[in-house]
Specification:
By secondary structure, this protein is an all-alpha fold. It folds into two domains: 26-59; 60-121, no CATH class. It has seven helices and no strands. It has helices at 10-17, 27-37, 45-58, 61-75, 87-98, 100-106, 109-119. α4 (61-75) packs parallel to α5 (87-98). The termini are close together. The mean pLDDT is 92.
């Protein structure tokens, strides 16, 4: 099947333009923030930093484009194919591709019908 590129709606473009990832603090800064938030304990800061990075990557337009492109590719039966060196896009693509069936069950009928009409027919 031929690959179709995802085209965001006007509403998505507007919402995505408001997303701005924040700059990553250094390890020392993150450890200090972690200790302050966890009553002086430093243990667990590595997982906290990992979660912070993932949430920061998720707050970008590239992540959202990758998310929807992954869904389109999975729905069309195409193999997994990251196209960008951008980590935000790749994370979104992975999540969109991997979670497509689960995400689709959460869509209302209108969204599902519009998606099928535009990308599957």
């Amino acid at each position: 099947m031929e690959r179709k590129m995802y085209e965001p709606t006007e509403k998505q473009i507007k919402n995505w333009s408001e997303l701005h990832p924040v700059e990553m603090p250094s390890d020392d800064e993150f450890k200090a923030m972690w200790k302050k938030a966890h009553h002086g304990k430093e243990t667990g800061w590595g997982m906290g930093k990992r979660n912070w990075i993932v949430s920061s990557l998720s707050a970008s337009q590239d992540y959202q484009m990758g998310l929807w492109q992954g869904r389109v590719d999975k729905a069309r039966g195409l193999g997994y194919q990251e196209k960008s060196e951008d980590k935000s896009y790749n994370l979104g693509y992975f999540r969109g591709y991997d979670n497509y069936e689960s995400d689709r069950r959460g869509w209302d009928r209108t969204i599902r019908d519009n998606f099928e009409q535009k990308y599957l027919n």
